[in-house]
Write a structure and sequence with these properties.
single chain; 234 residues; alpha/beta; Rossmann fold; binds adenosine-5'-triphosphate; branched-chain amino acid transmembrane transporter activity; ATP binding; ATP-binding
C-alpha cells in the first residue's frame, strides 16, 4: 500500500533522514520507533507532503506521490494526526470534527460519521460544545484522532499518540488504535513508547539518527536484545 524508498531530507545543513526505506501493506499496523530526534516526525511529514525528500520516491497504492501537494495526498486517503495534539483550540469539539471532514461534502454521511465518532468517543459527545482548548490532554488526543478519522482515511499516520498521557489513558488510546485498524484503516505509528507500539503493531522499524537500523516483526523486536536494552528499559 505504501512504499517509501531512499528518503533524504535536510533542514538547511542538517541531514535529518539518511536514506530511509520501508513499506506498509494494506491492513497492517507498522511502528516506527526511535528516540528523540531520530527522524520519526520528519518521516511522517515527508509522506504527507509537508517536507520534500531530495532523493527517492514515495508510492501510495502504486502511484508516486513524492511530488503531490499535501491537500491532494489527504484526498487520496493519507491522514496525519500530528504530534502534540494540534487540535483547533478556539473551535468547539463539533467544529473540530467538521474541519476534519473538509474534503467531503456529503452532508448526511458527514453527520453519520460524526455520530460514529461520538459513539466511539463518548467523552467527546459530552464535551461537543466546549472549545478544544478546554479539554484535558487525553480528550485532546481523542479529538485529534477523531478529527483525522472524519476524513475517512485509508492510511492513518499517528505521531506519538501516547505523548504526555497517563498510563491508563495510553492503554485506552492504543485500544482505540487497534479498533480503528480492525475496521479497515492501515496505520503507521510513530512512538517513543516502544513497548506499547510494538504490542499492537504487526511489524516495526527502529530509527537512529536518520537511518533504519533494524526491521522485523513486532514480536521479534520485542525480544531483540538491542531493542530491549535501548528502548524497553533493559
Ligand atoms: P521527536 O520525537 O523529538 O519529534 P523525531 O524522531 O520525530 O523526534 P525529527 O523531529 O524528525 O525526529 O527530527 C530529526 C532531526 O531533524 C533532528 O536532528 C532534529 O533536530 C532535526 N530537525 C527537525 N525539525 C527541524 C527543523 N524544523 N529545523 C532544523 N532541524 C530540525
Amino acid at each position: 500500500m505504501l512504499e517509501v524508498n531512499d528518503l533524504n531530507v535536510y533542514y538547511g545543513a542538517i541531514h535529518a533522514l539518511k536514506g530511509i526505506s520501508f513499506h506498509l501493506e494494506e491492513g497492517e499496523i507498522v511502528a516506527l520507533i526511535g528516540s528523540n530526534g531520530a527522524g520519526k516526525s520528519s518521516t511522517l511529514n515527508t509522506i504527507s507532503g509537508l517536507l520534500r525528500s531530495r532523493t527517492g520516491e514515495i508510492k501510495f497504492q502504486g502511484e508516486n506521490i513524492s511530488e503531490t501537494p499535501p491537500d491532494e495526498i489527504v484526498r487520496r486517503g493519507i491522514i496525519q494526526v500530528p504530534e502534540g495534539r494540534r487540535i483547533f483550540a478556539p473551535l468547539t469539539v463539533t467544529e473540530n470534527l467538521e474541519m476534519g471532514a473538509y474534503i467531503h461534502n456529503d452532508r448526511v454521511q458527514i453527520e453519520q460519521d460524526m455520530e460514529e465518532m461520538f459513539n466511539r468517543f463518548p467523552r467527546l459527545r459530552e464535551r461537543r460544545k466546549q472549545t478544544g482548548g478546554t479539554l484535558s490532554g487525553g480528550e485532546q488526543q481523542m479529538l485529534a484522532i477523531a478529527r483525522g478519522l472524519m476524513a475517512r482515511p485509508k492510511l492513518l499516520l499517528l505521531d506519538e499518540p501516547s505523548m504526555g498521557l497517563a498510563p491508563l489513558l495510553v492503554e485506552q488510546i492504543f485500544e482505540i488504535i487497534q479498533d480503528i485498524n480492525k475496521r479497515g484503516t492501515s496505520i503507521l505509528l510513530v512512538e517513543q513508547n516502544a513497548q506499547m507500539a510494538l504490542s499492537i503493531a504487526d511489524r516495526g522499524y527502529v530509527l537512529e539518527t536518520g537511518k533504519i537500523i533494524l526491521e522485523d516483526s513486532a514480536d521479534a523486536l520485542l525480544e531483540n536484545p538491542l531493542v530491549i536494552n535501548a528502548y524497553l528499559g533493559g
